[in-house]
Design goal:
By secondary structure, this protein is α/β, with parallel strands linked by helices. It has a single domain, classed as 4-Layer Sandwich (Purple Acid Phosphatase, chain A, domain 2). The strands form 2 sheets. A 6-stranded mixed β-sheet has the order 5-6-7-8-10-9, covered by helices on one side. α1 packs parallel to α2. The protein is globular and about 45 Å long. 38% of the residues are buried.
Amino acid sequence: MEIGFDVISDLHLDPNDNFNWENKATSLYCIVAGNVSSDLRTIWQTLGHLSNYYQGIFYVPGYLEYENAADFDVRTKNLLDIVKKVPNVAMLYHHVVVMEGVAILGCNGWALESDIFELNEHRAKELAYLKKSIKKLQTHLDVKKIVVVTNSVPDLELYYGEIPFLDVDHFDLTTSLDNDTEHKITHWVFGSHKKIVDTMIGRIKYVNNPYYKVKPYWAKRIVA
């Protein structure tokens, strides 16, 4: 059975922004690939608004959600607490959702420069988590397909010759694909890049659908 997902990311909303998703949903489910807002209340309101239009939302926090954070773990707990209060939303933080044969696996990725906290350790943990989870899902009998979701751009190739605003040369998330021995990964959804991407590299479709307050803006639908 195939499942449709609406893909959105990089809303970059401020508390006074008016974001309206009425009549824009094209699927039963939505993937939010991070960078909703740096304001916790705005994140809560936006996810709550989106939950009115989808049976399920799969959310990966982006670098923007941690922009004003003094402590990584405290901010992560804040985000988890917000998601618990919003119906139909699952935060993909060390948490895989499996439904109707499709596994949705997500993480931030942390391919960015920041003075908030030391990121090398977080980067290594995210990559290790991806590799371990992908490997484990290969033998999961109920999982026929995998959709990977990261806030970070997974590979430099996806910048299409543009110079990234951050240093990701040493941090290639797609090395985790070595563990996809059964070729279950069909899509890789990501954010943190202003260019719309919908392309096949090898056997995997890579999709980015950023907002960055450029209107009109619509969801990008994928079918896994």
